[in-house]
Amino acid sequence: MSTWNNARSDSEQPGRKKGSDASTVIGARRSAVARWLLAGLVLLAGSMPLSQATAAPATTITADPAGIQEGGAPGAFIIQVTDPDFPCFLNTSTVEVSVAFGGSAIPDVDYLATGAPGNLVSVPMTLDTQDCEFGKASGTASVRIDPLADDLAEGDETVVLGSSTCRIPGFDVPPSDCVASATMTILDATMIASIVASDPTASKEPLDPGEFLVSLSSPAGEGGVTVTYSLGSSATAGVDFEPLSGALVIPAGQTSASISVTPISGEPGSPDTDLTVTLQPGQGYVVGTPASATLSITGRTALPLALTVVSGNDQLVTSQQPLAPFIVRATNTLGAVSGLAVLWEVVQGDGSLSTTQSTTNASGEASAVLTPGNETQYAVRATLSAQGGTVSTTFNAIASSPLADLPGLSPGQRSVAGALDSLCPALNTLGQRSALSAGEQDLLNQCRTLIANSGTNLGAVAQGIVALTPEQASAPRKLVTQISSVQVDNLTERLSALRSGARGISLRGLTVGIGEQTIQGGLLASAIDRGIESGGGASADEAWPFERLGIFITGDVQWGSKDKTTNEDGFEFDTLGLTAGADYRFTDGLILGAAMGFASTEVDIDAAGGSLDGDSWSLSLYGTYYPTDHFYLEGSATYGWDSYDQDRNIAYSLLGNTRQAKANFDGDQYTLLFGAGYDLIRGGSIIDMYGRLRYTSASLDDYREQGANGLDLVIAGQDATSLSSILGAQLSRSISTSKAVLIPQGWIEWEHEFEQGDDEVQGYFANDPNRFGFALPTDALDTDLIRLGVGLGAQFGQGRIAFVSFQTSLGMENYSEHNVTAGVRMEF
Fold first, then answer.
1. Do 742 and 688 touch, CB atoms closer than 8 A?
2. Which class would CATH give 191-298?
3. Which helix (H) or strand (E) holds 433?
4. Residue 33 pLDDT
5. d(Cα 313, Cα 327) in Å, to the nearest integer?
6. Dihedral over Cα of 510, 516, 521, 527: its sign
7. How far apart are CA 730 and CA 743, in angstroms?
8. CA end-to-end span of the chain
């Protein structure tokens, strides 16, 4: 507030007119001085303050302009002072304004201030009139502000200039209050760039882009601002997202722009990734915070993987010799998958691998080679673990002859096992080159199962080998000689009857036996005739008008059994034979005839309940010549043809069920018989002493089984020969009673076999394209045997005969022959 005009008199007003005379002026001035002096005295004496007597000066401060650019043109604070009672008489024209600087800007750092030395601003005052003692005065002054440039991102800053007091230099009175202030803004010339992920999630499936937003602290100037950036994190340009330029232009007048991230779909199973964008310093801006941002790129769902065997499984190994490569293929629903790591490990056996990890090639294949040690079983696992899951497969390999080396096998079983040892790897190799037939694949599967268990389950494997060995294959060859003997024995019986005088039509009844011994009907008739002549219970036959022609029918039923041996299965059999023929007595000592025979045989095989059924037809020529009543010669020639139906059951635990292999095949045989004998007749008793040579040759066709899938066999054709000699004697006697003539009899024979009859049976598995064969030894024929028999017959009236007998064979190995024979005969 002004203090300098408080003592002014009312009569002395400022603004008096110029032109008063000097004395008047001088007087007036003197009076004014006197008044100022008086005022000073009053002031000193504590009278009324000067400030209360006058109006305060008005002070304003204005910022011009209100904002200036950092490093740009200067600005100024304009200070204006207006005093209505400024002392005109003082020898001064200024007012000193005390000022202070404030605000966020730092002096000499952010700006330079000029015009306020010592924080005092001298304001030159101008009076409205010079002819005054106190008058209205005003003045202005400026404080220059020069903004300083820097590279700091500080934002806008302020400079505040405030005044507090005013004083007149040289006028020793207290300063008056003149409070005013103004603010000037220094606009930061450096723009700040920052970044955020405005859309932080992108996706490959479904395709969905993400986005970054780059912002400036102020609008971009003319030409825009180019913000550069770098990329980082796990996402790869060109693989996971479309490549970015690394620079973003923010147009003039804009404060932001976006970076769009477009994912690349890629392969199924591509992983989730992250993309980080980091701003880099550049022209016209600085990098603020946040300086970087990250978005995630969601990958595609992985397709399920599969790992399959290409080749190398189920190989046969030789110790320390590398195997063929184990090869696997990795695939998904789109096909082969390359670049995946396959891990290999030996899970069974003492072998070593060429590698423990291999990578799938363009075909999706990877491989490893096993060098086996000294064990018999090997297993190698291949494992693939990747997007899409973990999958594995196992290769197996076995010793080269694991089946044939099993303990406890018979020679035939070992031969079959050896065939399996050979065919299994060969079939496996074939299957890796081309598709196997259903039968071949089944054979390979069964072979693999046996071999795979040969190191851990010997009992089950041995059981399987036994079941697969067709030891019953020799049964037809054994039976074909038995069938031929039925017809020969029936013919021998007829010749004996002829020698005893049989004539006309003779239904000689039914002969039932085991082996070859039958009741000699002719001898019975002779004994009966003698019993009749002595008055027995039956009457003599009347003469037959065609006594040189004879017709007969003879039947024979036999059954027996054979024990199982090392080489052959056991079996039980029964045979029904019928022989019908006609003969003619050319002279009293020569009879020749022809006959046809039929025999049906059923065989039950002990092994797993198999069976063999055979039907045989035969044609025979026979004859006898006796130059005397007691000595005779006899002979026959027989040719027969046979048909067989065979069922072979296959059952073992590793197979899991029972299979039946069926076969149909044919055969034929011929038999030659030559004999001689001598009959002694003493009353009602007959002693027949005889000797015979018999030769039989039989053959069976080869055959192929059906019905057991891969386990069907092919059995080669078989041949059998027998040459035997028979020496025997039979005693018969007739005893007459009131009801019938009884004929007890007994006999003994010795038969010697000259042939061995132990030829091998050859065969192979029907579904083995390489036909690895096996050979089955057979039992030799018994060299010598003794037959003993007893019987009882009864001759009733009108040609009726009944009989029963028992026979046993002694000295046969693994073969039993016991006959119980019963029958009746009637003659017409």
1. no
2. mainly beta
3. helix 411-433
4. 41
5. 9
6. negative
7. 12
8. 184
Q: Give the integer Cα–Cα distance in Å for 357 and 382.
A: 9
Taking CA atoms, 145 is separated from 72, 186, 398, in Å, by 11, 10, 99
Residue carrying structure tokens 């119980």: 820
* Residues 662, 646 contacting (CB under 8 angstroms): yes
Question: What does the domain layout of the chain look like in residue ranges?
Answer: 50-183, 191-298, 306-399, 411-468, 473-827
Cα-Cα-Cα-Cα torsion 473, 475, 481, 486, nearest 10 degrees, comes to: -140
Backbone angles phi, psi at 445, to 5 degrees: -65, -45
CB-CB contact of 495 with 692 (8 Å): no
DSSP one-letter code for 537: S
- CATH second-level architecture of 473-827? Beta Barrel (2.40)
Q: Note the maximum CA span of the chain.
A: 229
Topology alike, domains 306-399 and 473-827: no
CATH number belonging to domain 50-183: 2.60.40.2030
The enclosing H or E element of 428 equals helix 411-433
Residues β-bridged to residue 714:
704, 764
Q: Where are the alpha helices (DSSP H) in 621-685?
A: none
Q: What is the DSSP-derived secondary structure letter of residue 799?
A: G
Q: Residue 547: its pLDDT value, please?
A: 60
CA distances 305 to 78, 272, 394, 773, Å, are: 83, 19, 16, 43
Contacts of range 530-536, beta carbons closer than 8 Å, 24 or more positions apart:
530/681, 530/683, 530/684, 530/734, 531/684, 531/734, 531/735, 531/736, 531/741, 531/743, 531/795, 532/736, 532/741, 534/684, 534/736, 535/736, 536/734, 536/736, 536/737, 536/740, 536/741, 536/795
CA count, 13 A, side-chain hemisphere, 749: 20
pLDDT along the chain (828 residues), means of 10: 38 36 36 40 38 65 92 92 81 86 93 93 85 83 92 83 89 82 88 93 92 92 91 92 94 94 86 94 87 93 86 80 92 88 91 93 94 81 82 81 85 92 83 88 90 82 92 78 74 69 41 39 42 41 58 75 79 82 88 92 80 92 89 93 93 90 93 93 84 93 94 93 92 85 88 84 95 90 87 70 73 72 51
Angstrom distances, CA of residue 346 to CA of 313, 368, 371: 14, 11, 11
Residue 52 burial (CB count, 10 A): 9
Q: Residue length, the chain?
A: 828
Burial class (CB in 10 A: 0-12, 13-18, 19+), 175: middle
pTM: 0.54
- Which of 75, 825, 733 is closest to 506 using CA atoms? 825
Beta bridge mates, 142 = 78
158 forms beta bridges with: 185
Q: Please state the three-class secondary structure of 317-342 as a single string.
A: ECCCCCCCCEEEEEEECCEECCCCEE
Fold of 306-399: Immunoglobulin-like (2.60.40)
191-199 and 285-287 beta bridge pairing? parallel
